[in-house]
Amino acid sequence: MRAYIIRRLAQSVLVVWAVTTIMFFMFRVMPADPTAILLERGLTDEARQALLEQWGLTGSLWDQYVAYLANLLTGDFGSSFLYRKPVWEVLTPLIINTLWIAVPGLLLGAALGAAIGTAVGWAKRGGKLERSGIFLATIIRGVPNFVIGIALLTIFSSTLGWFPGFGMGDPGETTGFARYMTLDFLHHLALPLIAVIIYFMPENLLLMRSGVVENRTEDYIELVRAKGVPQRRVAWHAARNSMLPLITWLFPALAETIAGIVVIEIVFSWPGVGRELVLAVTRQDYPVAQAAFFLLAVMIVIANLAADLVYGKLDPRVVYK
Amino acid sequence: MVAVAPPRSGHRPASPATLAELERLTDRLSRKPAAHLQVESLSIGYSTLRGRFHAVEDISFEVPAGTNLGLVGESGCGKSTVVKTLMGLQPESTEVSGRALLDGRNILGLDENALRDFRWKRISLITQSAMNSLDPVYCIGDQISEAILAHEPVSKATAWARAEQMFALVGLPAGRLYEFPHMFSGGMRQRAVIAMALALNAGLLLADEPTTALDPIMQSQIMTRIRGIHAHMRCSMILVTHDIAVVAETCENIVVMYAGKVAESGPTADVLERPLHPYTMGLKNAFPRLPIRGEPRQPLISIPGVVPNLLLPPPGCRFASRCPFATEVCHSVTPPVVQVGVQRAACHHTDRAAEFRLAAARPDTWRNMRGAA
C-alpha cells in the first residue's frame, strides 16, 4: 500500500512537471506582447525594455525556463504583470472564493445525484418516477451550463428578485474569515452554488441509476430480499455496489467540472480563480495564468489518486501492488 | 489457500452480557417447531412477448413437519420457479394461483411487508449459485448478522456470536467471518450460505440445487453436512436437485416434475423401487452406477429429445413425444393423476408399469425412440 502511494506520487510529480513545461512554452510561443496592456499609458521603449527585463522575459527561452522552474521549486510563482503583486497574493483570495462554490457544489451534486439515482433505479421499471427522472436528467445534462446559469439569473434574480445576480456582495468593514460569515455573502452564494449542483448532478444520477438497475437483478440481491430485511436495506445493497463505477468516473470528472465552474463564475461574475484564469490569458498575464493552470493540474492529479484510494476502501477486492 | 485472517482490530472475545444474550437467543431459536407446508394446485405463469405460458401448472405436494422432500426433474421443468415463488421472489409480472399453506397460513400473493414476516424466520433459502449469492462488498459475518438483526431484537455483538456458532456448525473457522466472499473457495462459500440459512433456525429450509456448482467430492461433503444439520436441527426441508441419487440418500418423499407438472410423487423408496411413470424410469436409468464385479455392466441410458416448449404445450401428456410407451390416448388426452398404493402418477398406463419397468431397463427401448421423435 505504501509503496503504491509512493509510486503514484512520483508519477504525479512527473505529470505536473510535464503540464508546467507545456504551459510555459505555450504562452511564450503565442504571438503577443504582455506589455501591450500598459502601452496606452505612454510607455517609452526604454521603460518597456526595463519591464520585460524585470518580468524575466528577456534572455533565451531556455534560460527563462530554467529560472521559472527554479523559482517554482521554492514555491515562487513570480509576480503578476498586471497587479504588480506576487501571484500568490493575487490568487489566494480568489481560490477561497472558488472553493466556496466548488466544494459544496460538487459534494452536494454527487450526493444528491447518487441518492436520486438510486431512487430512480430502484423504482418500478417503466414507471412514472423512472421515466421522469431519466427525462429530466437527460435534459439538464444536454443543456450547456451557461444556459443553466442564465436561466437561474432570469428567474430568481431578474424576475422574482429573490437573489442578487452579481458578484459576492459588499465586504464592508469585515476582513478575513468573518467576510464569509455574513448573510449577505450566503445570499450571493446561493445562485452560483445551485448552478454548480444542477450542472454536476445529472451525470451522477444517470450513472447511479444504471448501476442500480444492473445490480438489482443480481443473485445476491435476491438473497438479501429472501433474508427479509426492509426494502430500504435491499436497495442500499444495490446502491453500495453501484458506487464502485460511480467513483471511478467521479474523480476524473471533477476536472471537467472545474472547467464548467469557470463558465458559472463568469455568468455570475463570481470573483473566483476560474474567472481570473480566463482574464489572465486574455491579458497575457503569464505568471497568473501559469500558476492557475499549475493548480488545476495538481488538483486533477490529486483527484485521480484519491479515486484509486477511495475505490480500494469501497471494494474489498481491490489490492494495491 | 488463503491464510486465516486475524480478527479485525478492536474485536474482543464476547462479553458476558453478549454470551448471556446469545444463550437466550439460542434457546429461543431451538424451541421453534419445524414447519408444515402444503402446496395446493400451484400454477405459476409468465407473460412474454410471444404470449403467456405456465412455467408450473397445477402442482400439489405436502411437506409434513420435520420431513425432507426431494424435488427432481431436468433443467427447465420449473423446480427453481417453485422455490422462488414460495419465497415470494418471483418477478413482479408473474401470475401465481393456488395456495401454499405454511403452518396453515397462505403465503402466496403477500406484499413485501407481509413477506418479511416469514422470510428467514420460517423459511430460509440455500441458493443455487453460492458464487454470486453473497454481496461482494460486505464481509460474510456482516451478511449473516444482517439476517439475524432483521428479525431478532439482539445486539450486533450477539448476532455476530450467533454467526460464529453457525460457522462452527458448517465447519468454518470463526476468524473467516471477517473475510469477504472473494476470499472464499466455492465450497466455502456454499458452506457460508448454508450457515446463513441456518442462523434463525427457520422451520423450513429450501435448498435450491445446493451442490450444482461444486465438484463431485465437494458435492458429497456438502450433502453429508446438509443431512447432518437437518437431523440436528429437525427442520423441514425441500431439496431441489436433478441428482436422483442424492434424493435417494436424503429425502423421505420425492416429487418428480416434468415440464411444469408433477409426473410422479410418493415416498422416495417406493417411487425409486417401483416407478409408475415412464419419465421416472428414464430418469432412474440415466444415472451412472459403478459396475459391480461379477454382474453385467449397467448401461447408461439417456432419454432422447428435450422438454417441450411451454409456450405451445402439446395436447395430452407432455412427456408423450419422448415416451417409448406412448399410445394414441397419450397424445390427445391429459393423463389423470392415479393413486397406486402410496404413490401417485400422472400417466394413462399405470396398470402396465411393471411391464414398462422391464422394458425401460433395456437401452434399445429408448434408442428406437430416437428415430420416431
Automatic annotation (TrEMBL), chain A:
<dbReference type="Pfam" id="PF00528">
    <property type="entry name" value="BPD_transp_1"/>
</dbReference>
<feature type="transmembrane region" description="Helical">
    <location>
        <begin position="246"/>
        <end position="268"/>
    </location>
</feature>
<feature type="transmembrane region" description="Helical">
    <location>
        <begin position="134"/>
        <end position="157"/>
    </location>
</feature>
<keyword id="KW-0813">Transport</keyword>
<feature type="domain" description="ABC transmembrane type-1">
    <location>
        <begin position="95"/>
        <end position="307"/>
    </location>
</feature>
<keyword id="KW-0812">Transmembrane</keyword>
<dbReference type="GO" id="GO:0005886">
    <property type="term" value="C:plasma membrane"/>
</dbReference>
<dbReference type="InterPro" id="IPR035906">
    <property type="entry name" value="MetI-like_sf"/>
</dbReference>
<dbReference type="InterPro" id="IPR000515">
    <property type="entry name" value="MetI-like"/>
</dbReference>
<keyword id="KW-1133">Transmembrane helix</keyword>
<comment type="similarity">
    <text>Belongs to the binding-protein-dependent transport system permease family.</text>
</comment>
<feature type="transmembrane region" description="Helical">
    <location>
        <begin position="12"/>
        <end position="30"/>
    </location>
</feature>
<keyword id="KW-1003">Cell membrane</keyword>
<dbReference type="Pfam" id="PF19300">
    <property type="entry name" value="BPD_transp_1_N"/>
</dbReference>
<protein>
    <submittedName>
        <fullName>ABC transporter permease</fullName>
    </submittedName>
</protein>
<feature type="transmembrane region" description="Helical">
    <location>
        <begin position="99"/>
        <end position="122"/>
    </location>
</feature>
<feature type="transmembrane region" description="Helical">
    <location>
        <begin position="177"/>
        <end position="200"/>
    </location>
</feature>
<keyword id="KW-0472">Membrane</keyword>
<feature type="transmembrane region" description="Helical">
    <location>
        <begin position="288"/>
        <end position="311"/>
    </location>
</feature>
<dbReference type="InterPro" id="IPR045621">
    <property type="entry name" value="BPD_transp_1_N"/>
</dbReference>
<dbReference type="GO" id="GO:0055085">
    <property type="term" value="P:transmembrane transport"/>
</dbReference>
From TrEMBL, chain B:
<keyword id="KW-0472">Membrane</keyword>
<dbReference type="InterPro" id="IPR013563">
    <property type="entry name" value="Oligopep_ABC_C"/>
</dbReference>
<feature type="domain" description="ABC transporter">
    <location>
        <begin position="37"/>
        <end position="284"/>
    </location>
</feature>
<dbReference type="GO" id="GO:0015833">
    <property type="term" value="P:peptide transport"/>
</dbReference>
<keyword id="KW-1003">Cell membrane</keyword>
<dbReference type="GO" id="GO:0005886">
    <property type="term" value="C:plasma membrane"/>
</dbReference>
<dbReference type="GO" id="GO:0005524">
    <property type="term" value="F:ATP binding"/>
</dbReference>
<protein>
    <submittedName>
        <fullName>ABC transporter ATP-binding protein</fullName>
    </submittedName>
</protein>
<dbReference type="InterPro" id="IPR027417">
    <property type="entry name" value="P-loop_NTPase"/>
</dbReference>
<dbReference type="InterPro" id="IPR017871">
    <property type="entry name" value="ABC_transporter-like_CS"/>
</dbReference>
<keyword id="KW-0813">Transport</keyword>
<dbReference type="InterPro" id="IPR050388">
    <property type="entry name" value="ABC_Ni/Peptide_Import"/>
</dbReference>
<dbReference type="Pfam" id="PF00005">
    <property type="entry name" value="ABC_tran"/>
</dbReference>
<dbReference type="GO" id="GO:0016887">
    <property type="term" value="F:ATP hydrolysis activity"/>
</dbReference>
<dbReference type="Pfam" id="PF08352">
    <property type="entry name" value="oligo_HPY"/>
</dbReference>
<dbReference type="InterPro" id="IPR003439">
    <property type="entry name" value="ABC_transporter-like_ATP-bd"/>
</dbReference>
<keyword id="KW-0067">ATP-binding</keyword>
<dbReference type="InterPro" id="IPR003593">
    <property type="entry name" value="AAA+_ATPase"/>
</dbReference>
<comment type="similarity">
    <text>Belongs to the ABC transporter superfamily.</text>
</comment>
<dbReference type="GO" id="GO:0055085">
    <property type="term" value="P:transmembrane transport"/>
</dbReference>
<keyword id="KW-0547">Nucleotide-binding</keyword>
